[in-house]
Amino acid sequence: MLAEIWELGFRQVELGHGIRLSLIQGIAEFLRDHDLAISSVHNFCPLPLEVFRASPDCLQCTSSDPTERKRAERHTFATIDQAARFGAPFVVLHLGFAPMRDANRQLSKLIHQGKIFGRTFVQTKLRALQQREKTDVYPRVRDWLIPVVEHAKQARVRLGIENRTELDTFPNESEFNKLFDDFKEPVLGRWHDFGHAQVRQHLTLLDHAELLQGAAPRLLGCHVHDVIYPDRDHRIPFTGTVPFKELLPMIPAHAPLVWELWPSAKADAIRTALEKWRELFHQDAGNAKNAA
Description:
Layout: H1 2-7, E1 12-15, H2 24-33, E2 37-42, H3 66-86, E3 90-93, H4 104-112, H5 119-134, H6 138-155, E4 158-162, H7 173-182, E5 188-193, H8 194-202, H9 208-215, E6 219-224, E7 226-228, E8 232-235, H10 244-247, E9 257-259, H11 267-281, E10 287-289
Parallel strand pairs: 1-2, 1-10, 2-3, 3-4, 4-5, 5-6, 6-9
Antiparallel strand pairs: 7-8
Helix pairs in contact: 3-6, 4-5
């Protein structure tokens, strides 16, 4: 797994949320013998033993079940500890879902049918947004984060909360702002996913550039992938609609850029895009996600 990424020309890698405990020793041995560093680790890593496939939302801190929230805390602690052992400065977090029916698929279907901005599209979106505003899992997540942030602080690892695609995911933009009001220390920040934000722009839920501009002060890192309109994400950069030339200047120089691609992406196409990226942005985009 790591050898393929290394041979593509990447020299940093994010360990994804599908890494089984049995792979950790082999990863450590590969890192010992190659010039490859771990830039970030995606919660949960290693994968909980009872979970058999990559599933970053298998345990949610938004859950109404205190037992599930406690298990999510325990496995997040384990991810933070794993990041510290590998010398990774960041852990990427998903923070679960609000209790409502998500409308993304219906909105995407209407776009494919050519009905964007039609009455049904607008009514569907407004109903979903109104329902989302009525949900309030914020206190539950805030309380869950307090020991997690403290654990990360002790481990000298920073936590990046990822923006998601679906309307029912937590946090939305107002909840992001509340979190950073409550957690002012820089141990907690944002992890900007280019593809997720672009899909939400296509669904007329936000303006990607405006979102990124607001996120920049607390930005820790990014997931980089392109989007084929309206919602086919995790594509190779420069094959879709993400305006990287416009957006990249907003990214702080210190932020790692993790290419997060579908497994079907062809090696030659990745190499070509990586070469173009380096020519355009004069950056060493040598950072890939192993579970892409």
